[in-house]
Amino acid sequence: MDKLDEEQELAPIGDTRGEHDYHRFILNPAPSEGQLTVLFSGEGRTHPLHKIGPAIHDYVLVHTVLSGHGVYRTRGQSYTCRGGDSFVIFPGELFSYQADAEEPWHYVWVGFVGSNANALLDSMGVTPERPVVRGARLPDLRPLYNSLNDTLQRTDDPLLADLEGSGWLRLILGQLGRICRGNRTSSDLDTAAIDRQIEQAIRFMSLHYTQPVSIDQLSRTLGYHRTHLSRMFKRTTGLSPKQYLMQIRLERAQTLLSDTSMPIDQVASAVGFNDPLYFSKKFKDWAGASPSTYRKELPQRDL
Question: Where is the HTH araC/xylS-type domain positioned along the sequence (predicted)?
């Protein structure tokens, strides 16, 4: 069931009807295709026991509860959400949510899509298994939703409204992300810090593989002893830093042998080997054929 079907007939902005005491739905006038795109935003104060679902969406939908409470259900779990809590509906996931009988909730929402949407939420620690973020400071978060709503109403320049809307969405997610970070255990924080350091090491090697790379210097740059970095790196990637760097160089060499007519010694130099003979030996160990044999066995093509 789509959001438009859930609310049956969309109320004009600021109108009151249906199962809401107050309902405001604002559509993005010109949604783009990108990493993060707002589809719509809004605000509602529901009647007691107002229910949505069971349903499935093809976009992400975040509700932040301002007051009152209700229950969000997904994957067989029930989550009671109150003021300051946010619940996230993921694409393709069956869900339902229902307002309390005595104190129905008042919430704001934003629906969005994008190639980076799920990865961004995952990096925050928000997943279908952990879809609720608790304890937001509403004085910090509510103005961001208000600004998003105001932005999407500027239909005189739809493209600019879309661009600014994505910015307000990122700020909303940033606030929720800070809360998630604050709720992590020390073990979670240690693991996240290690993962970031390993990512930095991989990024450094991927950018500097053509130059001499000292694992000792890399370790000092990241603030670790070489032995500790090597142990963490191997636990994460299955390879030592030296092995990973060698793999990067050999993969790049394979591409150059396949896509260019560069002489073997130039290929070796281009990927960080000072000795062409050593390069040929390592390439043969890795690919099962020397660089020259590997190139000869490639299908004929124009270089």
Answer: 199-297
Distances (CA, A) of 85 to 64, 88, 179: 6, 10, 10
Task: Give tens-digit pLDDT for 83-120.
Answer: 999 999 999 999 999 999 999 999 999 999 998 888 88
CATH number of 185-303: 1.10.10.60
Element (H, E) at 236: helix 226-237
Query: How far apart are the C-alpha atoms of 198 and 204, rounded to whole Å?
Result: 10
Both tokens of 18, joined, read: 């249906």
In the chain, which segments carry CATH 1.10.10.60? 185-303
Radius of gyration of the chain from Cα atoms? 26
Q: Which residues contact 35 (CB under 8 A, 6 or more apart)?
A: 114, 115, 116, 117
Q: Which residues of the chain are in CATH 2.60.120.280 domains?
A: 3-183
Residue in this structure with the two tokens 């109403």, named with its chain if needed: 153
CATH code: domain 3-183 is 2.60.120.280
